[in-house]
């Protein structure tokens, strides 16, 4: 048997046999017991052909995708931005760019638009500010007009919850609801058995106890909510270094307007959306917005700074472009409209 196998199937190698040899081997040994187990170490030629065909198809799709991507990239590179039209009220106020355009530049990380507007210095010029001296506050009317057009660096706070809402929440306690049902039954039974008002004493006593617990609980929760609200306001009193009228000064982040030049250092939170002006070894932690743990290496090629992120290393100057605090969903809220 061994000589027969060597003579007829000696060219069947354990590995890397030719397809012709494998075909002959499978055809001669086609009728065997448990063929799947028998040929478990032998290449399945039909599957191999299917895999090869799939590879060719995928390769062709990839080639087409690459060609389409190249064509699209060349088209985008060759396409000039459409002429930007400045709204009349913005132009009349002395600015050459509006808040919608500024928001689209930063939030979409559109470096092409930055270049179209003349770079960061060009955008600063269109915001009627200087990258070195900041905005001029000598004209109070102009500052107010800037706030009217571009908004203020605050978010629309939710209204304080009323006392009666806490009363309603206190009434949702399951124990109190059971006691209320007991009070109702007691009133009905007492009045039927002993008449009014003697039979209502027990039921009314239970109702009075329930109301006492509800109002004490609601009052405590309401006062606590007011304390938390005041504490939250204190935590939000953040100051930042800003250049205005040619010199640095300390001011609240809520007083920032587009065109302000802000100075950031390690540990500072970016107070508003803006563009990088200059700095040294700046690393920005964007994990609070993007979820990425690795810090971003911000410079002229990536000048976009988003509010809510933190400076992890280095220091820099930024041009504020869009104001309004960024909420937990990553969107910017502004009460300017």
UniProtKB/TrEMBL annotation:
Cation-transporting P-type ATPase N-terminal domain ranges (all copies): 116-186
Keyword set, alphabetical order: Magnesium, Membrane, Transmembrane, Transmembrane helix
The keyword Magnesium belongs to this UniProt entry's keyword annotation: yes
InterPro entries per record: ATPase_P-typ_cation-transptr_N, ATPase_P-typ_TM_dom_sf, ATPase_P-typ_transduc_dom_A_sf, ATPase_P-type_domA, Ca_ATPase_N_dom
Residue ranges annotated for the Calcium-transporting P-type ATPase N-terminal autoinhibitory domain, each copy included: 5-50
Positions of the P-type ATPase A domain: 238-332
Pfam family membership, one: CaATP_NAI
Transmembrane segments: 174-193, 199-219
Molecular function terms from GO: calmodulin binding; P-type calcium transporter activity
Keyword Electron transport attached: no
GO CC list: plasma membrane
Protein name per its UniProtKB record: Cation-transporting P-type ATPase N-terminal domain-containing protein
């Amino acid at each position: 048997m061994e000589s027969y196998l060597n003579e007829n199937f000696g060219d069947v190698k354990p590995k890397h046999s030719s397809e012709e040899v494998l075909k002959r081997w499978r055809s001669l040994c086609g009728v065997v017991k448990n063929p799947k187990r028998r040929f478990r170490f032998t290449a399945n030629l039909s599957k191999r052909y299917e895999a090869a065909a799939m590879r060719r198809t995928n390769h062709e799709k990839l080639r087409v995708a690459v060609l389409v991507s190249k064509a699209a990239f060349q088209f985008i590179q060759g396409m000039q931005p459409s002429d930007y039209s400045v709204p009349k009220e913005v132009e009349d106020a002395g600015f050459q760019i509006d808040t919608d355009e500024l928001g689209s530049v930063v939030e979409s990380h559109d470096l092409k638009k930055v270049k179209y507007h003349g770079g960061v210095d060009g955008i600063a010029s269109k915001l009627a500010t200087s990258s070195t001296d900041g905005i001029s506050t000598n004209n109070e009317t102009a500052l107010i007009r800037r706030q009217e057009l571009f908004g203020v660096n605050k978010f629309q706070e939710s209204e304080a919850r009323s006392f009666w809402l806490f009363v309603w929440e206190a009434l949702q306690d399951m124990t109190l609801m059971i006691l209320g049902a007991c009070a109702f039954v007691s009133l009905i039974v007492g009045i039927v058995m002993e008449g009014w008002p003697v039979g209502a004493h027990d039921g009314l006593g239970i109702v009075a106890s329930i109301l006492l617990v509800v109002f004490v609980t609601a009052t405590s929760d309401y006062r606590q909510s007011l304390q938390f609200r005041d504490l939250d306001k204190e935590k939000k009193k953040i100051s930042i270094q800003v250049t205005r009228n040619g010199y640095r000064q300390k001011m609240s982040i809520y007083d920032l307007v587009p065109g302000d030049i802000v100075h950031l250092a390690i540990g500072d939170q970016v107070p508003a959306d803006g563009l990088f002006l200059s700095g040294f070894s700046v690393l920005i932690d964007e994990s609070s917005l993007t979820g990425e743990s690795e810090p971003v290496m911000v410079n002229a090629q990536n000048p976009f700074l988003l509010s809510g992120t933190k400076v992890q290393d280095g220091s820099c100057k930024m041009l504020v472009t869009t104001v309004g605090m960024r909420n937990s969903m990553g969107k910017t809220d502004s009460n300017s409209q």
